[in-house]
Every structure is written in structure tokens, then in C-alpha cells.
Amino acid sequence: AVDYESDPIMKLIVAATVNGNYAYTTVTVNLQDINDNVPTFTQDRYVSAVWEEMRRNTFVTQ
Questions:
Q1: pTM of this prediction exceeds 0.85
Q2: Cα–Cα distance for residue pair 15/34, rounded to 1 Å
Q3: How far apart are CA 42 and CA 13, in angstroms?
């Protein structure tokens, strides 16, 4: 579970593929302590597409 008090930094591994070629990178998420409600996720896994032409700060998934 995501918990600011126990671990304020999360690291995610992101995979990208183009024409069968894969690349991986690590994304670091710095959590902010906004409230103490337990986060809930409706799925075990989320898949999103990020296109090369997308502008910065574009919403990807929630």
C-alpha cells in the first residue's frame, strides 16, 4: 500500500516498446502527505500509452 509515513518515495519500472524493441526506465514518485486516507485501486495493473508528440504535464492515467 502507498503510505507516506512508511515510505515517502516510490520507484516504478516503466517499459516501452516500439516495433518489438523494448526499453525500460525507473520513475521516481515523491509522495506528499496530504491526507491519511488509504488509497484504493480498482485494478491490479494499469496500462497507458504515452506518445512521443505528447506535451509535458499531459494526463496519462488515474
A1: no
A2: 29
A3: 20
d(CA 10, CA 37): 18
Q: What are the boundaries of each domain within the chain?
A: 1-62
Instruction: Specify whether the CB–CB gap between 9 and 28 falls below 8 A.
Output: yes
Q: What are the strands, taking DSSP E only, across 1-62?
A: 9-18, 21-30
Residue-wise pLDDT for 12-61, tens only, equals 999 888 899 999 999 999 888 877 777 788 888 888 888 888 888 888 88
Amino acid occupying residue 6 = S
Cβ atoms of 11 and 30 within 8 Å: the answer is: no
Phi, psi of 26 (to 5 degrees): -105, 135
